[in-house]
Amino acid sequence: MRLSHSLSCVNIIAPHHVRNEMTTFGGKVTKRDVYLPNSEDEGKLAFIIFNVFTPDECQQWIELSEQRGYSPATVNVGAAELVLMTDFRNSGRCIIDDASMANTLFQRLEQFLPKTWKNFELVGLNERLRFLRYEPGQFFEAHMDGEYHRPDGSGEQSFITIQLYLNEGYKGGETTFIHYSDAHKNVRCIPRTGMVLVFEHRLLHEGSTLIEGRKYTNFELVGLNERLRFLRYEPGQFFEAHMDGEYHRPDGSGEQSFITIQLYLNEGYKGGETTFIHYSDAQRNVRCIPRTGMVLVFEHRLLHEGSTLIEGRKYTVRTDVMYRPKNK
Questions:
Q1: Residues of the chain with CATH 2.60.120.620
Q2: What is the distance of C-alpha 207 from the center of its chain?
Q3: pLDDT tens digits for 85-114?
Q4: CA-based nearest residue to 173, from 130, 213, 218
Q5: How confident is the model at residue 139 (pLDDT cuts 50, 70, 90)?
Q6: What is the CATH number of domain 229-323?
Q7: DSSP at 114
């Protein structure tokens, strides 16, 4: 679970690579700079502070947000228009306007924040706290955060994002800074309870797909979707690069799919591999060559294709792994 927040300033720091695995520093508040993947972003602000909040404090904020309730997060498309776009941003959100809570967080961060940013001086944190809750399969596609301009004529505005992580122990769900052309150079920030990520709004990043492990309202395995899709490919046929969509059972049970099951019924043909696609370099694509009786299992939101069949005939069966919320 994440708490997203904004503030008004910071200083340029020398980059230091944040590795995929972090150490908890025994309760000591510790700062680590984040290496940014694009040369164009060299010198821009991004750093992590560990142990800003204790686990108990994080749990209290989680419980408060659950009491207030969550609704689907929307996207600001301009002119204050908010649109639900679950193919781009898919999570729950709870907005709490609380100056006291914001000030508690600010007091712990202030020593790490520069007093000025461009021609602006540091004021504090935006009191609008946006609690974000991700379920397995949810994500926030690559984006840059927008500036907030206070509408009271004071001239206050935000330049920097504050992201407080309220829990850990799940799989996936990293905040990932995106390389413009090579996904292998992306930089992942793996959440730790009480950790704060601080970065300039205008840095390209994503909330990577959560695979499993949210503490509350986890999904549990139900079985397979009974709708079996048999696919037959003739020479010259293919399925272009795509991501599989989630299936939501329409009976109100809350059951939905997150994982694809692909059973291969024959082999001996030429071409027709299931290929996972590199975003910028086809030489790095990964081909899965079918064998009779083989099953390929992968999460829906992986870019892949059914490569062109050159000769022979290919048969497969596609279905989905279904889950339901544990509280259903």
A1: 30-220, 229-323
A2: 2
A3: 888 888 888 999 999 999 999 999 999 998
A4: 213
A5: confident
A6: 2.60.120.620
A7: -
Residue 238's nearest CA partner among 278, 285, 271 is: 271
Which amino acid would we find at residue 304? H
Backbone angles phi, psi at 210, to 5 degrees: -80, 125
At residue 41, φ and ψ (nearest 5 deg) are -100, 5
What six digits make up the tokens of 30? 């510790």
Which residue bears the tokens 């413009």? 180
Distance from CA of residue 72 to its chain's centroid? 15
Q: State the Cα angle at 67 between 64 and 70, rounded to 5°.
A: 100
Q: Enter the tokens of residue 271.
A: 């071409």
Q: Which residues contact 146 (CB under 8 A, 6 or more apart)?
A: 76, 201
CATH fold of 30-220, please? Jelly Rolls (2.60.120)
Instruction: Tell me if 316 sits within 8 A of 265, measured CB to CB.
Output: yes
CB-based contact 237:269 (threshold 8 Å): no
Phi, psi dihedral angles at 60 (to 5 degrees): -60, -40
